[in-house]
């Protein structure tokens, strides 16, 4: 956690703090038992599955994940156990939207390639026809998942005079659309999406929503950005579309194989990569940590949690 969060933990809670190397699942369980802990703060790197949950002692009342997503949590098992589990919605909207737009710009303008050229010594001028990117301004931005983060990305897109189209489980009220055009069917939106950005939740409904068939519906030369979930994308199909030129580029902050993604992505010059850092600003990570502590403190004081995940 950031320094302000750690200071709050030390001053307000009787807590066991992990070593720099972290704790294994077995060590976490042992610490909870030995300390008679009533609350647990963890991150999306913890596999909070049924086998882990069934090992938790009965005195644990609340578990707060320092993430907005909870794909790493077996919600049904937690509910059956009677454990309050919370997340951190809203506080990371702007940071993640900034990351998405950074990747849009970097992928379209070949920022990763330009950076490598200079680091490798540069050494020649490029002709007017060489090493060209594609403009962001004026393009049509397709958004899959128009929740709070998707809306924040749309707000940024309007500053670049982009037309915004979106696909969502349901249409937003007009005041939240802010001029964006809704498509009930994803297949109808994709042919218009010169740049496509993903902000949908994980789960069976959205698993591999980006695949060979949906990628083929994008206009040739489109750009894909994903700061949501690696499970939204069939990575074999994405790599094929990047290799054959159907996609101009991609910007990826999330992967199926985290923290060891498919090595082929690193070999593709037209991909900008980030190690799942959408919320990684000092301000946002501090707010997330404090949101976790607020939830833990509320439950342990006998009050409802502000952010239960069900």
UniProtKB/TrEMBL annotation:
Gene3D superfamilies: NAD(P)-binding Rossmann-like Domain. Residues 22-306 form the D-isomer specific 2-hydroxyacid dehydrogenase catalytic domain. The keyword Oxidoreductase applies. It holds the Pfam family 2-Hacid_dh_C. InterPro entries: D-isomer_2-hydroxyacid_DH, D-isomer_2_OHA_DH_cat_dom, D-isomer_DH_CS, D-isomer_DH_CS1, D-isomer_DH_NAD-bd, NAD(P)-bd_dom_sf. The keyword Transport does not apply. Keywords: NAD, Oxidoreductase. Residues 101-278 form the D-isomer specific 2-hydroxyacid dehydrogenase NAD-binding domain. CDD domains: GDH. PANTHER family: 2-HYDROXYACID DEHYDROGENASE YGL185C-RELATED, 2-HYDROXYACID DEHYDROGENASE-RELATED. Belongs to the D-isomer specific 2-hydroxyacid dehydrogenase family. This is Lactate dehydrogenase-like 2-hydroxyacid dehydrogenase.
